[in-house]
């Protein structure tokens, strides 16, 4: 069955349908990973977006039970050059077509994803629709121009209620703005006793759990659309060690008086080089974000830039000059992607140890 992808700039690309038969609208973005499509599809940070996978063959190793980053994917649609019909892998359970069909997510294959990526790189992210070829493109384009995309993505993907992930080590509160399972997995691998809480949890409620540290997770959308989280982070500063990832990094910056802005087409993929300004070390990172911290806004804050992106010089790491708090724009838990920066979780544990030692000295 034929299906068309229509962008608000007037671009119309016709391909073949797979996955769900429903029609959809969302922000069209691209990600450059060669593998890890299952983790990408289930990453809550893609909430509300139609995701283009630039690698030409997707689904060749199927979908398995182990590589999920969330239970229910939040993407609006999937765009690929070719979707494998007969996956082959010892872990394979179902095909990508069957998975998307079960989850109610439409896909389109057989289009020129290289051309689409070049359009997005040139004009920036665009609103788009995956729909039947029976739809009039001009009418769809007009509707796209009028549509306001939702701004409650964090609310959609955050847990509704707190829940524990027990361990016998450091007590950590993980604030879920759309957290990937990989973050929780890394904390559990280090025997942390984790309590996951919703995005709107107050600082007072978090501190009542007596944590040794607070993790600010990744998540979708504009950080300025979550003012309650900004206030929460501001109220936690200096009271407990903080470690922020991706959206958590941006919320931390806003809480400290810095500013954020929307990138032209974002950073999405598993091969972004990041340089540590103190050591000069370069690591390759997994990234998925459409916003960044404004460098000029850092000058009049208590923040220090620790890492930069070597592709475009944007800020990739921050730390507070007075308090035990640091953040990164990328994903040290990877999934998918390189694990070069996985040691940041160990740094978080080290800071919690130092903080507890300091508290005992002043007790």
From TrEMBL:
Identify the residues that the record assigns to the Carbamoyl-phosphate synthase small subunit N-terminal domain, covering every copy: 1-131
Does the keyword section mention Nucleotide-binding? yes
Pathways involved: Amino-acid biosynthesis; L-arginine biosynthesis; carbamoyl phosphate from bicarbonate: step 1/1; Pyrimidine metabolism; UMP biosynthesis via de novo pathway; (S)-dihydroorotate from bicarbonate: step 1/3
What are the entry keywords?
A: Amino-acid biosynthesis, Arginine biosynthesis, ATP-binding, Glutamine amidotransferase, Ligase, Nucleotide-binding, Pyrimidine biosynthesis
- The answer to whether UniProt assigns keyword Magnesium to this entry is no
Described by its record, this protein's role is as follows:
Small subunit of the glutamine-dependent carbamoyl phosphate synthetase (CPSase). CPSase catalyzes the formation of carbamoyl phosphate from the ammonia moiety of glutamine, carbonate, and phosphate donated by ATP, constituting the first step of 2 biosynthetic pathways, one leading to arginine and/or urea and the other to pyrimidine nucleotides. The small subunit (glutamine amidotransferase) binds and cleaves glutamine to supply the large subunit with the substrate ammonia.
Question: What's the protein called, per UniProt?
Answer: Carbamoyl phosphate synthase small chain
**Gene, per the UniProt record:** carA
